[in-house]
Each structure stands twice: as C-alpha cells, then as structure tokens.
From TrEMBL:
GO biological process assignments: aspartyl-tRNA aminoacylation
Stated name of the protein: Aspartate--tRNA(Asp/Asn) ligase
Gene3D superfamilies: Bira Bifunctional Protein, Domain 2, GAD-like domain, Nucleic acid-binding proteins
Chain's role: Aspartyl-tRNA synthetase with relaxed tRNA specificity since it is able to aspartylate not only its cognate tRNA(Asp) but also tRNA(Asn). Reaction proceeds in two steps: L-aspartate is first activated by ATP to form Asp-AMP and then transferred to the acceptor end of tRNA(Asp/Asn).
Binding site for ATP: R221, D222, E223, E485, G537, V538, D539, R540
Cited NCBIfam families: aspS_bact (TIGR00459), PRK00476.1 (NF001750)
Organism: Gluconacetobacter azotocaptans
Taxonomic lineage of the native organism: Bacteria, Pseudomonadati, Pseudomonadota, Alphaproteobacteria, Acetobacterales
EC number: 6.1.1.23
Protein location: Cytoplasm
Amino acid sequence: MHPYRTHSCAALRASDAGQTARLSGWVHSKRDHGGLLFIDLRDHFGITQIVIPAGSPVLETVERIRVESVLTITGEVVLRDDATKNPNLPTGEIELRAREVDVQSAAEVLPFQVAGHEHYPEDLRLTYRYIDLRRDKVHRNMMLRAQVIASLRRRMTEQGFVEFQTPILTASSPEGARDFLVPARMHPGKFYALPQAPQQFKQLAMVAGFDRYFQIAPCFRDEAARADRSPGEFYQLDFEMAFATQEDVFATLEPVMEGVFREFGGGRTVSTAPFERIPYATAMARYGSDKPDLRNPLLLSDVTEAFADSGFGLFAKIVAGGGEVRAIPAPGAGDRPRAFYDKLNTWAREAGAGGLGYIIFDEEGGKGPIAKNLEPARVAAIREKTGLKAGDAVFFAAGRGDEVVKFSGLVRTRIATELDLIEKDAFRFCWITDFPMYERNEETGLIDFSHNPFSMPQGGLEALNSQDPLTITAYQYDIVCNGVELSSGAIRNHRPEVMIRAFEIAGYPESEVEARFGGMLNAFRYGAPPHGGSAPGVDRMVMLLADEPNIREVILFPLNQQGEDLMMGAPAPVPSPRLKELSLALDLPRPKPGATVKG
C-alpha cells in the first residue's frame, strides 16, 4: 500500500464499501457527536468524512490535533445510513472508519478559518496566502485559471500558432507605463528593463520569418493598482501573425474567446462570432466610453441642437461656448418617486458634476425643472430624438470635450443599474476599431500619439503627408467584454519611412527615432512582412469568468494595492555590500514631517 494514499479525498464511492483505503489531507473540520468523532478530511480534489468510534486507539491522537493539521488515515470504507448521506458531496454516500492515524504535520492556531465563508481583511489574507488558497472559492479560482490557460494554448496551437518565449531581461519598451529596472552588475550604471509586453520581440519574430507566434506572456509594469489591474505583473495571451489584415486578427481571436467563455462560462450567454465592430467615434458618441458594456441597452443621443439659444439658460450657455448636451434615456422611470431623481442628482454632484437634469415625459409633453424652462417644441424634439414615450424619462449631461463624454458614459451605467436593465448571465463582446492616430495635448497644444505609436495609419504614408493629423485613424483595435478591455492590438507599421514620418508628426526628429528604436527600424530595412496581433489579458478573462470584482482574487500570489508582497516581505532593503557590488548608491526622499518610516 502506498505510504500516503490509495485514493484522493474525492475518489471513494459506494462501490468501494468494504475495502481498506488510505487517505491523506488536511483536517477541514472536526465534530464530536457523543462518543463518535467525525473529521472532514480535505485534499486538492475534495472531502471525505472520517469517523473515529468511541474507544478507538486513535481517538486520543485525533482529539488533540487542530484543524488544518495534515493526517494520513487508514481504515475501512463503510456505507452511511440513509439519514446521514450527504448529497452535496461526491463522497457523501460513504465514510472511512479510521484504524490508523499518522500526523504528518500539526497545525498551530490559524490566523483565520479555512472552512466557512467569512470575509477577512485582504492584507491578512495576503500575508497568509498559502492558507487563503486552501479556501474553496479561492482554490476553485486558481484551478479555473489553470484550465483557461490550458484551453487557450490548445486553441492557439490548433490554429497553427507556435509558442515561443521572449526575453525577460531586455531594454525599455515604449508601452506607456513605468519600467521595472534591473541593475546590470557587469555593466555599471546600466540597467535591464523587465518587459512591459513582448511587443518588439514578437514583431521581430515576424521579421525573422515565423508565421504565427503566441505565448502566455508575463508582463511587468510599475503602475498603480486598480480593481481590474495588478500593480506589478500580469499575464496575457500574446500573439502575432504575418501577412495578416485586421479582419484576419479578428477571425483568429474570436473563436478562441467565444470557445473559452462557452467552455468555462457556466451556461451563461456568450456573443457569437463575428463580434460587433464599433468604430471609436461611434463608441464615444453612443456609449460615452471606448469600453462599452453591451449588456446595457441604453444609447446616448446628441441633443445639443435642442438647447442652442433655448430658454434653458444653463445649457444654452454651455452650447454657445462650444459645449454639447447628451441625452441618456431612462425607459419606464417616469413613475419613479422624486427621491429617485434626487438620489441621482446627489450622485452626480459627488462625481464632480454640477448635477443631473432630467425631463419626465407624459401624455401632455414633459415635466421637471428643465421642461419648465424649455420650449415645448424643443421638448418634443428631444423625445423624438431619443425614441422615448409617455412614462419614460431622460437625463442630460452637458459640457465640453472628454469631460462630457466620460460623464455621460457614467450616467448611462448608473441609470441602467438603478433601473435593473443590464442583461444578466451574459458575456457580450465587441471590437472597438479605428482609433485616432493622434490627439492634441491639452497642456502643450502639440500633436501627440493617442494610442500605439507603432500602429499602421490608415492610408499609410499618403495620409500622413496629406491629411490633418487629427483626422487620421489607425489600424488599432480593442476587444471588450462586459465593459472590460481585454486587449489592445494593431496592424503594425512595418515600413521605416512610414514610421519615421509618423513620429515626425508627433514631434520626434528622425535622429531621435533612430536612437530610440534603431533595432526595430534596422530589422524592417531587411524585409519585413505586414503583420499584426493582439494580447488579451489572462487575468481579466479569469476575473470575468469567475465573476470576481477584484483581479487579485484570480492571481495565485498577488501584490496588495500598494505593490507589496506581504507574505514574502517584498520589496525589501538590500544590504550595502550588495548595492556596492551593483555600483548603486541610494538617494532616498526625506520623510515628510510626522510620517512613519518603514524599515
């Protein structure tokens, strides 16, 4: 017999009754039922109930051990009485009557319980993450992650992609975030950078003549944490294709996303390929976001014209100053009490807006603060533009530029949530396409890249030489699911002359482009195929599938919001001799008066 187990804690069934079995696992729980001691023994696979009868020679040993101790138990598989069967466990028809118990590892008093569903502070959970990972929900999240990654690999391989591993120690890449730097001991004063993404390497693989590359790529960015963003490292399904158009990339990724979300979505509805394509300008106008949640049926309308030179002075003034007014429909909200509107108005002020005006439509026209001061014909025009009817309401966001766009998107989400309009149990995918190549920097007034500078501009060199830069769109695209951006991607700019001109428009002279990106430019000068790709985030995919609001719930050993590993004590000071070996000297900021210094 194996020294630790003949079966896992999920394997025994009624057909095994009468056999001798040996199990090993953690003590999930203990229950004393008047002379009978019961243990739920748990391993990676499941739980089996152990029974120790009164008078058993192993009873004293088991009585003194704590939960989460590790035991090896040998005994006879017996059927449970009908009254004690547990239909919620695969092993619920049997129990193991213990004859021998070996204590492999005795547990001390736990910082928090593994059994149960209590909520504990995140910092406590991350400090003892190895205990937290024993909890059923967290354990299931990690297994889901592993299964998703295996499915992604299989699906990409079946489409002819080959997996390569790109370097971890590399040079800085212009991905828009801060690099994590690694001092080079043998090259004093110089640093490697951990890759923010394998961007340049995967493009160089295409130049090298490989046709379809992918990897589950680790990426490192020194940026603040968010609910959907890890502060240190993350993983993405990184892929690139030679001789590919934008539609080729879409046709490659769509069956992978649809397949994975159907496979692990638990029966939830999934968008069917081909996914909806929404130009960037349309997304901003219709949804107030370039990450629209298509489960939300509400669409924005531009009603600026209805308020131009109108009797509603506040909005008329905004329009006269070059602003716009957006309408956000609220179907069926006409019968809501005044408190509903007051609550939304308060929320809008807390969000930084002046308030949230509205009109309630009835059979006679409209009512509410705005309708009182707006000509009836204009109220009717708004109703027609928004497609609303008596019993509906409409809210308004007014302002200039990105400010009103962003706020109208927030209002759209808030109203749909309040009215319970967001589709349940569904994953709705879309592509956002045709991102602007350039934007005007509000601080400097100069032209700058708005997205990925290495993307191919639509129209190529001719567009760069003849069009207003602010009208040029690029072959750039994002894939979005339920309002979460899973990936950015692009058809790459593989022509040196186009790249140099694109950077020149953004204020970079050719000499600087050569100095910063000479490796890539030189490669393109030796024959580069048209190529493109994308890189959907694995962490975000699993977060959606697990229905978790926080990305740290689907990462094995995550950093906390401050970018600290509380379990391993990182980041940590480095001894002076090690700094000297690396030719480094510290110039630490002075602590602010009254601040606590961490040592």
